[in-house]
Specification:
370 residues, alpha/beta, Metallo-beta-lactamase, Chain A, seven-stranded mixed β-sheet, six-stranded mixed β-sheet, 19 strands, 32% helix, 22% strand
C-alpha cells in the first residue's frame, strides 16, 4: 500500500482507473463551469483552490423545481465566476433552495453566505461547525492567533515557523469573507428529503468537530466530505481550544462507523475522484495511522516533542504553510498515544512538552478500529 499524504501535503491527483481495490468509474473530472452526473439528479462539480490541494469537489442535487447544493468553494473571484456559469448553465436558471455545508473549513463554507443571500436559501449544517466557523473567522474561543502560537511553542515548534505564523495573513478570512448570520441545524441520523430521495446525515469527528457526511441508500451514494478521501489522509490536528484532546481517536471511531455502509457504496469525496472501494479505503486509512503511531511510539524511546517528530511523520521538507498543519497532526498522534497510556508527557524547564514511551505497550492498541 502506498502511503497516503495528508491534505496539507496534497499534490494534484492523476489517478488511474483503479488503484488496488479502488475503482474510479468516471474517466474525467468535471470541466470548469460544468458538471458530471454521477447518479440520477446528482451532479459533480469541481472548483479551484489556491493551495497545493488545488481543487474541491462540490455537489448539486436536483430538488423539485430547484437545487440543493452541498458545499460552496473558497471565496475566489474565479470561483464566483464559475458559479455564475453554473447558475445559468447546468442549473438552468432554477433557484438554489438550500445549501448544506459539511464542515467549517474555508473551501467548504467560503461562499455559503454569498449563495444564501443571492437565493434566500437557508444554510444547513451541524451546530458545532457553524459556531466554529464564527470562532475561527473572528478569532475567539481558542482560535486566537496567540493561543495557537502558544500551543505550538509548548510543543517544540522551531522559532522560525512561529515567527512566520505570527505575521501571516489569515487564509481563513481570505477564503471566508462572510458567514451566514443564521443556519438550520442538522444532527447525526437526520433524514433530509432531496428530490424525493432521503439523505441521512452521518456525523464524523476528528478532522473537524461535527463533520456532516450524507448517505443515500436508494442511490448507493456517500458524500463523504473530507472524512474518506481516495488518495490522501485528511488533516487531523489538535488545536488550542482543546490542547489535550484526542481527535485521532475520534477520527478512527468515525471510520469504524462508516464500515456499516455497504461495501459497494459509491463514494463522493471532497478531493480526488469519485470511487468505489469504501471498505478497502477505510482499511488503508486505519493501517496508515497505525503505522504512524508505531513510528511515533518507537521514536519516543527518548523524550521527543511534537516538533522533534515532524521528520518522523513527514519524510520531505515542509514549507511554513504545511508545517502549520503538520505540527497539529504530530500533537494529535502523541495525544492519542497518551490517551492509550503508551507514552508519558513531561514539561521541561524550557516550557516544552516532551513524550516518552511507557514500559509496556497497550495490549488493545491496533485492535479497536480494525
Amino acid at each position: 500500500m502506498s502511503r497516503p499524504q495528508t491534505a496539507a501535503l496534497f499534490e494534484p491527483d492523476q489517478e488511474p482507473d483503479s488503484l488496488g481495490d479502488l475503482v474510479y468509474p468516471f474517466p474525467a473530472v468535471p470541466a470548469p463551469g460544468t458538471g458530471v452526473e454521477v447518479a440520477p439528479g446528482v451532479h459533480w462539480l469541481r472548483m479551484p483552490l489556491p493551495f497545493a490541494l488545488d481543487h474541491i469537489n462540490l455537489w448539486a442535487l436536483e430538488d423539485g423545481d430547484g437545487w440543493t447544493l452541498v458545499d460552496c468553494g473558497y471565496a475566489l473571484e474565479s470561483v464566483r465566476s464559475l458559479w455564475e456559469q453554473l447558475f445559468s448553465g447546468l442549473l438552468r436558471g432554477r433557484p438554489v433552495g438550500r445549501v448544506i455545508v459539511t464542515h467549517y473549513h474555508p473551501d467548504h463554507i467560503g461562499l455559503a453566505a454569498w449563495i444564501s443571500e443571492r437565493f434566500g436559501a437557508p444554510v444547513w449544517m451541524t451546530e458545532a461547525e457553524y459556531l466554529t466557523a464564527h470562532a475561527v473567522l473572528h478569532g475567539f474561543g481558542g482560535y486566537e492567533r496567540e493561543a495557537v502560537l502558544e500551543l505550538f511553542r509548548a510543543h517544540g515548534l522551531d522559532r522560525k515557523f512561529l515567527a512566520a505564523f505570527s505575521v501571516r495573513e489569515s487564509a481563513y478570512k481570505r477564503g471566508v469573507p462572510a458567514l451566514p448570520r443564521a443556519f438550520r441545524r442538522i444532527i447525526d441520523n437526520d433524514e433530509i428529503s432531496v428530490g424525493g430521495r432521503i439523505w441521512r446525515v452521518v456525523e464524523g469527528h476528528g478532522h473537524s468537530p461535527e463533520h456532516a457526511s450524507l448517505h443515500c441508500s436508494e442511490l448507493g451514494l456517500f458524500i463523504s466530505g473530507d472524512m474518506v478521501l481516495p488518495r490522501i489522509s485528511t488533516n487531523i490536528s489538535v488545536w488550542a481550544k482543546e490542547p489535550d484532546g484526542d481527535p485521532l481517536g475520534r477520527f478512527l471511531e468515525s471510520q469504524a462507523r462508516y464500515r456499516g455502509l455497504s461495501a459497494d457504496t459509491r463514494v463522493l469525496p471532497s478531493h480526488g475522484r469519485v470511487f468505489h472501494g469504501l471498505h478497502r479505503r477505510i482499511g488503508d486509512l486505519v493501517a496508515h495511522h497505525a503505522g504512524r503511531l508505531e513510528a511515533v511510539r518507537n521514536a519516543c524511546a527518548t523524550p521527543q516533542s511534537a516538533g522533534d517528530l515532524l521528520p518522523v511523520l513527514f519524510s520531505r521538507e515542509l514549507d511554513s504553510h504545511q508545517v502549520f498543519f503538520a505540527i497539529g497532526e504530530s500533537i494529535a498522534h502523541l495525544n492519542h498515544l497518551l490517551h492509550r497510556g503508551e507514552v508519558e508527557r513531561m514539561l521541561g524547564e524550557d516550557g516544552v512538552f516532551r513524550f516518552c514511551r511507557t514500559a509496556t505497550k497497550n495490549p488493545s492498541a491496533g485492535r479497536a478500529y480494525v
